[in-house]
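Long-time lurker. I teach an intro course on protein structure, and each term I like to show students one example going from raw sequence to a predicted 3D structure in token notation. This year I'd like something fresh instead of my usual example. Would anyone be willing to generate the tokens for the chain below so I can use it in lecture? Attribution to the forum is fine with me.
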Amino acid sequence: MTFALYFFKLKRCMNNRHIQFHPQEKPSLLVPPHSPLDKGAMSSSHRSLASPLPPIPQPSQSQPPGAGPFIFRHKYDAYPPFFSLQPTLLTRQAQHKTWSRVIQSYCRHQRIFKLVLATALDTPLFHNAALEKRMSLAHVKEVVQFMAGEEGDRRAEWIGGDWVSCWVFWRRPEEWAEVLAGWVEETAQKNTVLTLYELVNGEMTLSQEFHGMDIELLQRSLNVLVKQGKAQIFGSEDQQGVKFF
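-- Reply from a regular --
Happy to contribute to a lecture. Here you go:
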């Protein structure tokens, strides 16, 4: 074979990147036998990069609001440090974000719109009887303060200035306005006058998430529709009504 022909075949092979393996052979991972990337070391490395806080329990996605008791996932009963304020900043931020999700999920399931913190401390939300762990009032206040800020997506709001109670916005007022407008369309309630009381306490809204809503939060949500020209509120404070357009 001439050198020119040999060079031509070699060049074509390189261009095609054609590499054959014997049927019994498998390409090597190019990891030395005692490399730190072996199976044991990889598992150890992976664990070291994992968050020190596992995800906090959340309800099953198939569990509709109000259907039986709130279902916590198993880690809720297996991670006592979650009920204690974490000392490092990054871990504490992750803890706050997870608690925010749990609080919203729990309140949605129970149809709770307002939390009185001192009372809530005795509920399963903040008291894990299986672990004999309870969040402190100071810890709960810090979580709510986080939820009330931009980083917490403004999912809470203090009521008054004493930090005794708060709104939990698993839906914010503007989001409730969309839900109400959708219900009006679905049930053909346009140009119908309804009292605020029957909106949140009447039999026709039993299946709706806004059933049982505090009147004050309902008013705030309806005011969003008023500004959009989709509703009109009238009457006295005790006997207010609304007409949807």
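Some talking points for your students: Confidence is low (pLDDT under 50) at residues 1-64. The beta strands are 114-116, 127-128, 133-134, 156-159, 165-168, 193-195, 231-234, 241-244.
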